[in-house]
Amino acid sequence: MEPTDEPTDEPTDMVLRPATREDLPAIADLYVEVREAAVPAMPPQIHTVDEVHSYVGGWDLGKREVWLAEVDGEPVAFMVVAGAWLDSLYVRPGQARQGVGSALLDVAKSLRPAGFCLWVFESNIPAREFYLRRGLVDLERTDGSGNEEKAPDLRMAWPGTEPLVFYRSLIDSVDAELGELLNRRAALTAAVQLHKGSTERDLGREREIARALATRAPILGEERAARIVHAIITESLDAAERLDVSQEPPRVMP
Hints:
CATH topology of the largest domain: Aminopeptidase
Strand order of the largest sheet: 1-2-3-4
Largest sheet: 4 strands, antiparallel
Number of helices: 7
Structural class: alpha+beta
Shape: elongated
Number of domains: 2
Number of strands: 7
Radius of gyration: 23 Å
CATH superfamily of the largest domain: Gcn5-related N-acetyltransferase (GNAT)
Oligomer: single chain
Helix content: 40-55%
Order of helices and strands: EHHEEEHEHEEHHH
């Protein structure tokens, strides 16, 4: 993400329109230009120009909404909205502080009035400040292991016209994943009992698990993570005792 900063001059000749397949090569060029100019706020681009053109050229415009901003007939910015995500918002450096990024962000809000999320690199302070000034909020930080550049990033969100409904929908999604993970954890706990030489709990291993969990959930910290791990293992063991562990272990959902 590399939107503009505060606008100082709104271009009166700016046109915003949905992109067509014929626009995709120009969008790919714009993406490469913006990413190169954004270093070091953004990590260096790891893909070649040909790879970028191949990727962008393969976009299915029926599954993602791509908008283009033009000034004097020239593309100066583009935005991609896919599902509940603002996937991209890139503005040519020469058009910074002219309201182009704000205009595209307003389009995104109109397209997704129920809210949306986006990812931004932690190092990209201008973009983060841009979004915060326009009503977005920080949701979570990661170590970057999930992105291609392996650079720390943040998940931000615009909570839409009904923030309570938006946040609860995100919680529902997390709870669905959490339920599957807890079921998987309990099943594995039951399975491992067949191969343990003792019924005693391995407190050293539990501490290692808590430390590892805390690195993935720094907002909780190690002490809270340890309590959560203790509760999960305790309840998983209790559930395992209710099963006939002499039989085939319960199937772990893929």
